[in-house]
Write the C-alpha cells for this entry.
Amino acid sequence: MLNQLDPLLHSELRLAVMSVLIALEEADFLYLQEKTGASSGNLSIQLDKLQHAGYIEIEKTYKGRKPRTVCRITQKGVEAFRNYVDVIKGYLDV
Amino acid sequence: MNEKESLELITRMIDNTRKGIEKNAALPMLIFGYTSIVTTLAVWLAITKTGNYMFHLLWIAIPVIGWLVYGLIGNFRSRREGASQSHMGSLIGRIWIFLAGVMMLCMVPAFLIRGFPASFVMMLLAAIGVSCSGLLVRYAPLIICGLLGILTSFVQLWVTGITSMIVLAAGFAVMMVLPGHILHYAANKKQKNNA
C-alpha cells in the first residue's frame, strides 16, 4: 500500500519554496518571491505554515534600515521533503 | 496538482536554483580576476618606472577593491532579485578567505627576505583555490584552468625579478578570468535555452 503524501508539502507554493530551500543554505524573502512568482501576502502565509510545522526556520534581521527575512530548511524539513519525493516516486513507479 | 506535476515542479525549481548558483559563481572569478590583473600590472609598472619596491604595498588593492566591487554588485543584485547562499558557495567562500589570508601572510616574508619567490607562492595558492573550487562544483574548465595555473606558477621559479609580475598577470587571466567568462557564458546560454 502506498504512503499518504504530506498534505503540508502537497501544495504548489509550499513545495516550490521547499524545493528552492533544499538546494540552498539560506534564501531571503525577495529571492523566494522572485523564484516562485508568488505575491508577498501568499508567500508570507505559506512560509508561516512551513515554519509552524518545523520544516523551515525564519530569521528576521535588518540590512541597513530595511528589514530582511531569511529562510532556512531544517533537518525535519529535509526529511519531510525526502519522504515526499520517495512517496511520489512510489506513486509514479519511477 | 497531481504526482507527476509535483515531481516536475520540484525538478524545475531545483534546476532553476542551481542555474542561478552557476551564474553567480562567475561573478567573483571575474571581479577578482580583473582586479588581480590590473593590480599586478600597476605594481609592475610602478616598480619598473620608479625602482621603489614599496609599491608592493599596492597588492592590498586586490582584496580591498575586489571585496568592495563584489559587495556593491551583490548589494545591487540582492535589492533587485533577493539574496541566497548555497552550501557550496559558502564552502568555497571559506576556502578563498583562508587562501587570501595565507596570501597576505606571504607578503610579510616578501618584504623581509630578499629573493623570496612571492609571485610563485601567490600564483600557486590562487591556482590551488581555483582547482579546489572546480573540484567542489565538478566544473571541468575551472579544474583545467586551475591546473594550468599550478603548472604556470612553477615557471615563476625560473623567471626572476620584476618580469615575474607579467607571468603572474597572465596566470590570473588564465586561471580566473578565462574560466569566469566560460562559466558566465555557459550559465547565460542555459538560461536562454530555457526561456
In short: Chain B touches chain A through 24 residues (CB under 8 Å). Chain B has one domain: 23-194.
